[in-house]
Amino acid sequence: MVQLSKRAQNLKTSPTLFLVAKAKELSAKGHDVISLTVGEPDWPTFEIPSMAGIEAIQKNITKYTPASGTVELRNAIAEKIKFEIGQSYTAKAVTVGSGAKFIIFAALQMICSPGDEVIIGTPYWVSYPTMVELADGVPHIIECGESEHFKITPEKLEKAINSKTRALLFCSPSNPTGLLYSASELKALAEVLRKHPQVTVISDDMYNRLVFDGTLVAPHILQVAPDLRDRTLVVNGGSKAYSMTGWRIGWAAGPENLITAMGDYQSQSTGSPSSISQHAALAALKNCEPDIASVVKKLIARKESGLSELSSIPQFKVASPEGAFYFWVDINACLGKTYQDRLIRTSKDFCDILLNHFYVATVPGSECGSEGFMRLSFAVSEETLKRATARMKEFISQLA
Ligand code: PMP
Ligand code: GLU
Fold first, then answer.
1. What is the pLDDT of residues 139-151, one digit of tens each?
2. How many angstroms separate the CA atoms of 364 and 349, rounded?
3. Closest ligand 1 atom to the C-alpha of 101?
4. Where are the domain boundaries for CATH 3.40.640.10 in the chain?
5. Which atom of ligand 2 lies nearest, measured to the CA of 176?
6. Torsional class of 70: left (φ above 0), alpha (ψ -120 to 50), beta (otherwise)
7. Measured in angstroms, how far is the CA atom of residue 203 from the centroid of ligand 1?
């Protein structure tokens, strides 16, 4: 047996990826598992990037690229950001990595020294706190409840900032709630941030194009507070809007010293992201606006039908998501009940029974820092969601 580092001893596996593996394990045993776990589109990668990937292989675009990605792709990313939030970046201010997950990880590695704090609001994307800890930082968690629509308020932000605070990390639209920060809410946060120049803003924009109010893109902090540009990192990637989860392409634009450090870090760790995937992502960025529009339309229909399904369960309370593809379900009415003599104390208990007895895989809210909730992905067909809801109803009818 190897003696592991302290870092390894404290490491927690990604709960979303663990649950996906668990669901697959049950499927392999012959169970008909419905997975609403992973935040992954069920539709294929669009035709244009898929063909570009094949072309990359055929044309032998299969070698190392610069560690931070090709200049062509970085320019295309800069153009996209200009189109979406109106900020101009040079290729030098953009870095491409193997997924936005690694991009955020690398950013935190470059921002945090031991003991530095990173502010994260609940409910958060499952990986944020662990990523901060892996950078020897301390996640400073702000509890954001239903009355605050699960968003950080300026008052709470002000209270959380101290001399150790180095960054604020948030995503909008949110994984897991699907709610987004309005322009005025972002403006109010910016007013607080302006007073604290040591705080870097990490804006995780993974779902910024998957919004349901007819606008093209979610409101962004740099649209309302462009003066924060010198300390804001804009993060995005191909996984969600372009359905390219397996291609592993993410990127960031921001202050050049941070981008350079992240690129150097990458040059000593993963090296350049896949040349094939970069070629595909370039094609996606240049050509896939109509595909994104059709995906948003599909998601709106799924959201509507999913909401009406879930509202037929009186024990559930669900806020209508404004973007992304998650339902954030309040299951507090089910806690304290028993199922076949097993007391359901936590969201983990609830989701565990739902998976092992009714074969519906979901993410317990506790993994996102909020007890009493469950995350469901609706990046699945309406039919699948209907079947899942029927099973949840069956489960709940058996609670005592
Ligand atoms: N941020 C958020 C909020 C996410 O949900 C995800 C999902 N995977 C990521 C970042 C990272 O995405 P990827 O590594 O696939 O680019
Ligand atoms: N972001 C997705 C999720 O939250 C993908 C899985 C992961 O990387 O954690 O389910």
1. 999 999 999 999 9
2. 8
3. 14
4. 47-287
5. 4
6. beta
7. 12
Q: Assign 135 to helix, strand or coil.
A: coil
The token pair at 223 is 């649209």
User: In terms of Cα–Cα distance, which of 207, 367, 239 is closest to 303?
Assistant: 207
Structure-token pair, residue 184: 């005025």
- Tokens 């045993």 found at: 29
How high is the pLDDT of residue 226? 98
Q: Does residue 35 register a pLDDT over 90?
A: yes
Of the pLDDT bands very low, low, confident and very high (cuts 50, 70, 90), residue 173 is: very high
The pocket around ligand 1, CB under 6 angstroms, is made up of 39, 99-101, 125, 171, 175, 204, 206, 237, 239, 245, 250
At 344-384, the pLDDT tens digits run: 999 999 999 999 999 999 999 999 999 999 999 999 999 99
- 6-44+291-397 belongs to which CATH class? alpha beta
Ligand 2 nearest atom to the CA of residue 99, by list position: 8
Which residues belong to CATH 3.90.1150.10 in the chain?
Answer: 6-44+291-397
Query: Over the stretch 3-14, which tens digit does the pLDDT of each residue have?
Result: 999 889 888 899
Q: Pocket of ligand 1, candidates 101, 245, 328: which has the most ligand atoms within 8 Å of its Cβ, to mutate?
A: 101
